Amino acid sequence: MVSMAAEIGFAFICVVLKTTTTLPPTLASPTTTTSVVDQIRELEGATAGRIRTDAAATALASTDFGTNASSVDAARPAAVFYPSSAADIAALLRASSASASPFPVSARGCGHSTGGQATAPGGVVVDMASLGRPRGDGDGPSDARLAVSARGRYIDAGGEQLWVDVLHAALAHGLTPRSWTDYLHLTVGGTLSNAGISGQAFRHGPQISNVLELDVVTGTGEMVTCSKEKQADLFDAVLGGLGQFGIITRARIPLVPAPARARWVRLLYADAALLTGDQERLIAERGAVAGLMDYVEGSVLTDSQGLIGSWRSQPPSSFFSEGDADRVAALAKDAGGVLYCLEGAVYYGGAADTTAADADKGLEVMLRELRYARGFAFVQDVSYVEFLDRVRAGELKLRAAGLWDVPHPWLNLFLPRSRILDFAAGVFHGVMLRRGGGGAVMGPVLVYPMNRRGWDGAMSAVFPEDDGDEVFYTVGILRSAVAAGDLARMEAQNAEVARFCADAGIPCTQYLPSYGTQAEWAARHFGPGRWYRFARRKRKYDPSAILSRGHRIFSDPLAAPTS
Fold this sequence. Notes:
Blueprint: H1 2-17, H2 33-46, E1 50-52, H3 55-60, E2 79-82, H4 86-98, E3 105-108, E4 124-127, E5 146-149, E6 154-158, H5 163-171, E7 175-176, H6 188-192, H7 201-204, E8 213-218, E9 223-226, H8 232-238, E10 246-254, E11 256-257, E12 261-269, H9 272-283, E13 295-302, H10 307-310, H11 322-334, E14 338-348, H12 356-369, E15 377-383, H13 384-388, H14 390-400, E16 411-416, H15 420-428, H16 435-438, E17 445-451, E18 471-477, H17 486-504, E19 509-510, H18 518-541
Parallel strand pairs: 2-4, 3-4
Antiparallel strand pairs: 1-2, 5-6, 6-10, 7-11, 8-9, 8-10, 12-14, 12-15, 13-14, 16-18, 16-19, 17-18
Helix pairs in contact: 1-17, 1-18, 15-17
């Protein structure tokens, strides 16, 4: 991420900006709140959608999971639109496109972005959840927003639907999607606009690689059904497209026979090289332990993590007894304050091919072959649903303690396999342990590998350039700013991580990216080839740069091309 900018430099930025989409001159004129409200009020008679401009509605639409409260007023929209159908959304976007000063429009699902990406300052935020709410007559959902085809083995899900509801709808037919995020209380459209990754991605790819068809409303208000066979460029643009090309109103997700249970495994390591080596053996195509786990992740454990540090992965009962906790603390002390945890799962039972005996046999092989610290293997047997929805339990605990609705200055990176140990030494054992500069960890820290073959380079999602290695890593530093001063310290520590990568020459790509200017996006995130394609698609599907300006990729006015 950062090192790319350091290598490319300002000269490259100037070259890249020559390919920038040129927008109509009217975009240079500021859009006033009054004019936006007047324009969209006309929609109330022409659509079934509702509009709110009151402070309560617009304040909620100004915040997200990562929000710094001081920025709420700057992100406030002029109005919030509550559509009853995709046609209502199309009408809104056509109204903006037809305006002398097109106003920004952003789709908001659960508001789980961490940098204001779903905001629409001075414009309109679309409350996607209203698509799934009952009609005014109270007779039921506005449409069949979750429809399973058992024969076709797919589910049609509205873009506003939560993945946890997709799961339960599919399980009613003995089926399940293959690829997940770790947190299921996110919308289908939201994760597909990014990538959607978790411990299944090594085998099945991210969620965007597991989509058959989409219904999309483009920035010009056109309603399009697209797939790899029909309107493929739009399909590829929208998946991982950060909401820049269209709003996803339906996704067709493939399904497979569902297991019933999961053997949930945690293995502790005192050495990053042993952890990553075992992770890579588990996701390989050949070898003694290859393919034995259905889910492979990992995390970094420090002695400063309590409830906040462990919220992400809460089992029904603790993995560790009090005696185990004392032994783990001693192991961490001997390891210099940092341990690593390989977290995995083996699915079995139900409609899956794997039986309980198969799961036990595979587990026996893994516990014999993997190089974890002996005596520090912990296993629980849970339902498939309990495993997939495990983060919810941690969320509820934090909510009960008043620790959920706080700023979350998260940093998510993709790293080349060849440099993961350099990163671990400099960040996990360096930057993160320097408490004076960054404070306690205060959140989960994830590290796990994925296989490149599961990703589709035609889609908009950015992942590391092919360096000849099949494997790359994701690192997620997922922190909560609870006390006064935490946010500033954590943001400073994120910047320190970026500087370390730049100084060490470690190429990084941000996942769930956030940059302040178009020049930074072009140089630091996309690179010249990808930026050219991204800008070309923007020109084609949202020429007035109406959609998702909260990302600050294409803004009002758009940065002029550099001569």
